[in-house]
Amino acid sequence: MSLVLVAEVWDALRDHLDFSSRSDAADTLVHLLIDNNYEADDIKDAFTDKDVRTALKAYAEEHYQEDEEFEDYDDSDDDEW
To answer: Which residue of 2, 5, 38, 56 could cross-link 33, Cys pair, CB 3.0 to 4.6 Å?
Structure first.
């Protein structure tokens, strides 16, 4: 499915969501798109909505920290096995 179409559907439905639940809905949408192999950069390009972009930024920061922790792993202890 085209991200442009997904963005159009989001724009059509977001006004029907309670204001307080839009950020949770955007978070769910971002995770669903990422889980279905859409790239973060492509999602960013397709969506202009503030809630989706905020959710995407939070997702990227969360996963960047995980990658950073992985890079800090010191494999020198592997020799003990």
So the answer is: 38
d(CA 78, CA 28): 38
Q: What is the pLDDT of residue 62?
A: 87
| 22-41: pLDDT as tens digits | 999 999 999 999 999 999 99
Residue numbers of the domain that contains 10: 3-72
Q: Given pLDDT bands bounded at 50, 70 and 90, which one contains residue 80?
A: very low
Domains contained in the chain, number: 1
Structure tokens at 67: 């990658």
Inside any domain, residue 17 = yes
Write b or e for each residue in 66-80: b if 16 or more Cβ atoms lie within 10 A of its Cβ, otherwise e.
eeeeeeeeeeeeeee
CA torsion 32→34→40→44, rounded to 10°? -10
Residue reference for tokens 């003990």: 80
